[in-house]
Design a protein that fits this description.
This protein is an alpha+beta fold and about 350 residues long. It has eleven helices and twelve strands.
């Protein structure tokens, strides 16, 4: 944007009597902020951004989603976030993209009063912006978040993820050492392992929905991660163990973590890891829990691979979450579940029959 346009933009926001925002000015307070899961979906349309507060609003969380709500008793409340300005000529495209990302069954667009932090360039003096805020469905209020919203403030990711590591670690270690005819093998390792894996998949669902809140199937959101650069890079870095299953409702199409399994001397080639892990989850949740050794191996491999990949992905989508983990002694660079598997198990093949 030229300096002339910048000057005109700034002066327009200060014109007496101008209450509404410019068409391309938006306030973001949740997953669309920088260093959060959705920023990559809109950054190419952003000309400028500035830290800002929304005045007279409260940020809450409901069903895992950040919401901007107005409460009568908190008229002076402020919510931290950012104001962005669309590139010249991209105002309508940004508006349309936001409509695809957000869920209009949960959110509505309205004008909010903002206070831009001092010295923020062409956005200095902006007093109003559009925002996607909570629809009033007469439901209970969301959980207020005094520090604002971010993955690093979400207990499921910030506190729950390290706890899950400590929960799954003895389960996976036990299943690689125990005997199947031992009663304690099932009560101490197998059943807790299955429960922990389902919780891990719930975290994956939460991340996928936070990133893309538009109405749709959770499965489609998760499968979209297989073409997301940060997600695939996280999987390549984690080097998860191979898993191969039939896709749902098919005896012909296969899904696997790797199309070419990596070795110590050769990089691998990913297939559809997130679809594969979520298929194992769906089979576990909806089909018979046949106690076959292959099913146990599927869950062990899937839990280890998904956990290690998700740990890397979370730190790349929201870098400050790793600081929260370090407070409780969890380091995603060294605390890896795949390391519990024997080397032959980590990169070996297992059969493609689906028993789960």
């Amino acid at each position: 944007m030229s300096s002339a346009v910048s000057a005109a933009s700034s002066s327009e926001s200060r014109l007496p009597g101008v209450v509404g925002p410019r068409p391309g000015d938006w306030f973001f307070y949740g997953s669309l902020k920088p260093s959060q899961p959705g920023w990559d979906q809109i950054v190419d349309l952003v000309e400028a951004r500035a830290d800002a507060d929304a005045v007279g609003w409260t940020v809450t969380r409901r069903d895992g989603l950040p919401l901007l709500e107005q409460w009568d008793e908190q008229k002076d409340a402020v919510v931290p976030g950012i104001v962005v300005r669309a590139k010249a000529g991209c105002e309508d495209e940004l508006k349309a993209r936001l409509k695809r990302i957000e869920n209009d069954g949960v959110y509505r667009v309205t004008n909010v009063r903002v206070r831009v932090k001092a010295g923020e360039g062409q956005l200095a003096g902006v007093e109003h912006a559009r925002a996607w805020v909570a629809k009033d469905h007469g439901r209970d209020r969301g959980l207020p978040l005094p520090e604002g919203w971010g993955l690093e403030h979400d207990e499921l990711f910030a506190q729950g993820f390290p706890v899950l590591f400590n929960y799954l670690k003895p389960c996976i270690d036990g299943t690689t050492r125990g005997e199947r005819d031992d009663h304690d093998y099932w009560t101490s390792f197998i059943f807790p392992l299955e429960g922990g894996f389902l919780v891990l998949c719930s975290m994956l669902e939460r991340l996928a929905i936070v990133r893309d809140k538009a109405p749709g199937k959770t499965t489609e959101r998760i499968e979209a991660l297989d073409s997301h650069p940060a997600a695939t890079h996280a999987a390549i870095t984690a080097r998860p163990p191979q898993v191969t299953v039939f896709v749902a409702n098919s005896r012909e199409r296969m899904a696997s973590v790797w199309s070419e399994v990596p070795t110590e001397s050769r990089d691998g080639e990913l297939h559809v890891p997130f679809q594969t892990w979520y298929t194992v989850r769906s089979n576990l949740a909806h089909q018979g829990k046949e106690p076959l050794q292959r099913n146990i191996e599927l869950i062990v491999r899937s839990a280890a691979g998904l956990f290690d990949t998700l740990a890397i992905l979370l730190t790349r989508m929201a870098p400050s979450v790793s600081e929260e983990w370090q407070r409780v002694g969890f380091d995603h660079r060294t605390d890896r579940l795949s390391a519990l598997l024997p080397d032959a198990e980590r990169f070996g093949e297992i059969g493609s029959e689906r028993h789960l």
